[in-house]
Design a protein that fits this description.
Length: 204
Protein backbone atom coordinates (compact mmCIF):
# COMPACT_ATOMS: atom_id res chain seq x y z
CA UNK A 1 0.00 0.00 0.00
CA UNK A 2 1.32 3.45 -0.94
CA UNK A 3 0.60 5.69 2.03
CA UNK A 4 2.60 8.85 1.38
CA UNK A 5 4.39 10.55 -1.52
CA UNK A 6 6.94 13.37 -1.65
CA UNK A 7 8.03 14.86 -4.93
CA UNK A 8 7.45 17.77 -7.28
CA UNK A 9 4.10 18.79 -8.68
CA UNK A 10 4.29 18.03 -12.41
CA UNK A 11 0.68 18.68 -13.47
CA UNK A 12 -2.68 19.56 -11.95
CA UNK A 13 -6.10 19.68 -13.53
CA UNK A 14 -8.88 18.98 -11.03
CA UNK A 15 -9.54 16.31 -9.98
CA UNK A 16 -6.30 14.88 -11.46
CA UNK A 17 -2.73 15.66 -10.44
CA UNK A 18 0.69 14.25 -11.31
CA UNK A 19 3.61 14.11 -8.89
CA UNK A 20 7.17 13.44 -10.06
CA UNK A 21 8.90 11.26 -7.46
CA UNK A 22 12.54 10.83 -8.49
CA UNK A 23 11.62 10.59 -12.16
CA UNK A 24 8.51 8.43 -11.69
CA UNK A 25 5.18 10.16 -12.31
CA UNK A 26 2.33 9.18 -9.99
CA UNK A 27 -1.14 10.00 -11.33
CA UNK A 28 -3.67 10.69 -8.57
CA UNK A 29 -7.16 12.01 -8.01
CA UNK A 30 -7.74 14.51 -5.23
CA UNK A 31 -10.63 16.45 -3.67
CA UNK A 32 -10.82 20.21 -4.12
CA UNK A 33 -9.94 20.65 -0.45
CA UNK A 34 -6.48 19.33 -1.39
CA UNK A 35 -6.24 21.32 -4.64
CA UNK A 36 -6.81 24.60 -2.78
CA UNK A 37 -3.48 24.14 -0.96
CA UNK A 38 -1.30 22.81 -3.80
CA UNK A 39 1.91 24.71 -4.59
CA UNK A 40 2.87 26.05 -8.03
CA UNK A 41 3.91 23.65 -10.78
CA UNK A 42 7.41 22.27 -10.26
CA UNK A 43 7.38 23.02 -6.52
CA UNK A 44 7.87 20.35 -3.80
CA UNK A 45 4.70 18.68 -2.55
CA UNK A 46 3.89 16.03 0.06
CA UNK A 47 0.61 14.11 0.02
CA UNK A 48 -1.09 11.32 1.92
CA UNK A 49 -2.47 8.64 -0.39
CA UNK A 50 -5.02 5.84 -0.55
CA UNK A 51 -4.97 3.11 -3.19
CA UNK A 52 -8.26 1.71 -4.50
CA UNK A 53 -7.91 -1.59 -6.38
CA UNK A 54 -10.60 -2.47 -8.90
CA UNK A 55 -10.82 -5.22 -11.47
CA UNK A 56 -10.12 -2.79 -14.29
CA UNK A 57 -7.83 -0.25 -12.59
CA UNK A 58 -5.66 0.72 -9.63
CA UNK A 59 -6.50 4.31 -8.64
CA UNK A 60 -4.40 6.39 -6.27
CA UNK A 61 -6.15 9.16 -4.32
CA UNK A 62 -4.23 12.06 -2.75
CA UNK A 63 -4.97 14.18 0.31
CA UNK A 64 -3.36 17.22 1.90
CA UNK A 65 -3.85 15.91 5.45
CA UNK A 66 -4.21 12.57 7.16
CA UNK A 67 -7.56 13.81 8.50
CA UNK A 68 -8.91 14.11 4.96
CA UNK A 69 -7.65 10.63 4.11
CA UNK A 70 -9.20 9.09 7.21
CA UNK A 71 -12.53 10.75 6.41
CA UNK A 72 -12.30 9.42 2.83
CA UNK A 73 -11.63 5.91 4.16
CA UNK A 74 -14.49 6.21 6.61
CA UNK A 75 -16.89 7.28 3.87
CA UNK A 76 -15.91 4.30 1.71
CA UNK A 77 -17.20 2.00 4.46
CA UNK A 78 -20.70 3.49 4.17
CA UNK A 79 -23.05 1.42 2.03
CA UNK A 80 -23.70 3.15 -1.30
CA UNK A 81 -20.73 5.54 -1.07
CA UNK A 82 -17.87 5.05 -3.55
CA UNK A 83 -14.69 7.05 -4.18
CA UNK A 84 -16.42 9.56 -6.48
CA UNK A 85 -19.06 10.49 -3.90
CA UNK A 86 -16.44 10.56 -1.13
CA UNK A 87 -14.34 12.99 -3.20
CA UNK A 88 -17.45 15.08 -3.79
CA UNK A 89 -18.09 15.32 -0.05
CA UNK A 90 -14.48 16.35 0.66
CA UNK A 91 -14.63 18.88 -2.18
CA UNK A 92 -17.73 20.51 -0.76
CA UNK A 93 -16.80 20.57 2.92
CA UNK A 94 -13.76 20.54 5.18
CA UNK A 95 -13.36 17.76 7.74
CA UNK A 96 -14.60 20.18 10.40
CA UNK A 97 -17.63 21.21 8.32
CA UNK A 98 -18.48 17.56 7.73
CA UNK A 99 -18.26 16.89 11.47
CA UNK A 100 -20.71 19.72 12.14
CA UNK A 101 -23.03 18.38 9.42
CA UNK A 102 -23.10 14.93 11.02
CA UNK A 103 -23.61 16.34 14.52
CA UNK A 104 -26.49 18.49 13.26
CA UNK A 105 -27.88 15.56 11.22
CA UNK A 106 -28.12 17.97 8.29
CA UNK A 107 -29.46 15.70 5.55
CA UNK A 108 -30.24 18.67 3.30
CA UNK A 109 -26.59 19.75 3.15
CA UNK A 110 -25.42 16.29 2.06
CA UNK A 111 -28.10 15.94 -0.61
CA UNK A 112 -26.74 19.06 -2.35
CA UNK A 113 -23.65 17.04 -3.31
CA UNK A 114 -23.98 15.33 -6.72
CA UNK A 115 -24.71 11.62 -6.45
CA UNK A 116 -26.10 11.75 -2.91
CA UNK A 117 -29.81 11.16 -2.51
CA UNK A 118 -31.77 11.42 0.71
CA UNK A 119 -31.37 7.72 1.59
CA UNK A 120 -27.60 7.81 1.08
CA UNK A 121 -27.33 11.02 3.12
CA UNK A 122 -29.27 9.46 5.97
CA UNK A 123 -27.04 6.35 5.81
CA UNK A 124 -23.89 8.51 5.96
CA UNK A 125 -25.18 10.31 9.04
CA UNK A 126 -26.26 7.12 10.83
CA UNK A 127 -23.17 5.07 10.00
CA UNK A 128 -20.63 7.83 10.69
CA UNK A 129 -22.22 9.37 13.76
CA UNK A 130 -20.00 7.38 16.13
CA UNK A 131 -16.76 7.68 14.17
CA UNK A 132 -16.56 11.31 13.03
CA UNK A 133 -14.81 12.50 16.18
CA UNK A 134 -11.85 10.21 15.48
CA UNK A 135 -11.84 11.21 11.83
CA UNK A 136 -11.65 14.94 12.67
CA UNK A 137 -8.05 14.88 13.89
CA UNK A 138 -6.06 16.15 10.90
CA UNK A 139 -2.30 15.66 10.67
CA UNK A 140 -0.40 18.64 9.20
CA UNK A 141 1.23 17.99 5.85
CA UNK A 142 4.98 17.48 6.27
CA UNK A 143 7.71 19.03 4.18
CA UNK A 144 8.28 17.69 0.70
CA UNK A 145 11.46 16.53 -0.95
CA UNK A 146 12.46 15.11 -4.29
CA UNK A 147 14.35 15.84 -7.47
CA UNK A 148 13.49 16.27 -11.10
CA UNK A 149 11.96 19.04 -13.15
CA UNK A 150 8.22 19.36 -13.63
CA UNK A 151 6.85 17.82 -16.79
CA UNK A 152 5.89 20.22 -19.54
CA UNK A 153 2.12 20.43 -19.86
CA UNK A 154 -0.33 22.67 -21.71
CA UNK A 155 -1.76 25.56 -19.73
CA UNK A 156 -5.56 25.50 -19.86
CA UNK A 157 -7.60 28.55 -18.84
CA UNK A 158 -9.00 28.83 -15.29
CA UNK A 159 -12.52 28.63 -16.77
CA UNK A 160 -11.83 25.37 -18.62
CA UNK A 161 -10.11 23.83 -15.58
CA UNK A 162 -13.03 24.82 -13.34
CA UNK A 163 -15.51 23.45 -15.88
CA UNK A 164 -13.67 20.09 -16.05
CA UNK A 165 -13.38 19.87 -12.27
CA UNK A 166 -17.10 20.47 -11.68
CA UNK A 167 -18.01 17.91 -14.35
CA UNK A 168 -15.72 15.39 -12.64
CA UNK A 169 -17.51 16.07 -9.36
CA UNK A 170 -20.79 14.99 -10.96
CA UNK A 171 -22.45 18.26 -11.96
CA UNK A 172 -24.25 18.30 -15.32
CA UNK A 173 -22.88 20.66 -18.06
CA UNK A 174 -25.85 23.10 -17.95
CA UNK A 175 -25.52 23.31 -14.16
CA UNK A 176 -21.75 23.90 -14.44
CA UNK A 177 -22.34 26.73 -16.91
CA UNK A 178 -24.90 28.29 -14.53
CA UNK A 179 -22.61 27.97 -11.49
CA UNK A 180 -19.58 29.44 -13.26
CA UNK A 181 -21.61 32.28 -14.72
CA UNK A 182 -22.84 33.16 -11.23
CA UNK A 183 -19.28 33.54 -9.93
CA UNK A 184 -17.78 35.10 -13.07
CA UNK A 185 -15.24 37.76 -12.23
CA UNK A 186 -12.04 38.84 -14.07
CA UNK A 187 -8.77 37.55 -12.64
CA UNK A 188 -10.17 34.69 -10.54
CA UNK A 189 -7.90 31.66 -10.19
CA UNK A 190 -9.19 28.18 -10.98
CA UNK A 191 -9.36 27.15 -7.33
CA UNK A 192 -11.17 30.33 -6.28
CA UNK A 193 -13.63 29.91 -9.13
CA UNK A 194 -14.35 26.32 -8.08
CA UNK A 195 -14.58 27.30 -4.41
CA UNK A 196 -17.16 30.00 -5.17
CA UNK A 197 -19.12 27.69 -7.50
CA UNK A 198 -19.31 24.96 -4.83
CA UNK A 199 -20.44 27.52 -2.25
CA UNK A 200 -23.10 28.74 -4.66
CA UNK A 201 -24.27 25.16 -5.27
CA UNK A 202 -24.46 24.49 -1.52
CA UNK A 203 -26.75 27.49 -1.04
CA UNK A 204 -29.07 26.55 -3.89
Amino acid sequence: MIGFLKGRLAAKQPPLLLVDVNGVGYEMEAPMSTFYGLPAMGEPVALFTHLVVREDAHILYAFATDGERRLFRGLLKVSGVGPKIALGILSGASVEDFLRTIEAEDVAMLTRIPGIGRKTAERVIIEMRDSVQKLALPTPNGGAAGVGAAAATPTPTPQSEAFSALLALGYKPPEVVRLLKAVEEPGLSTTEMIRRALKSAAKA
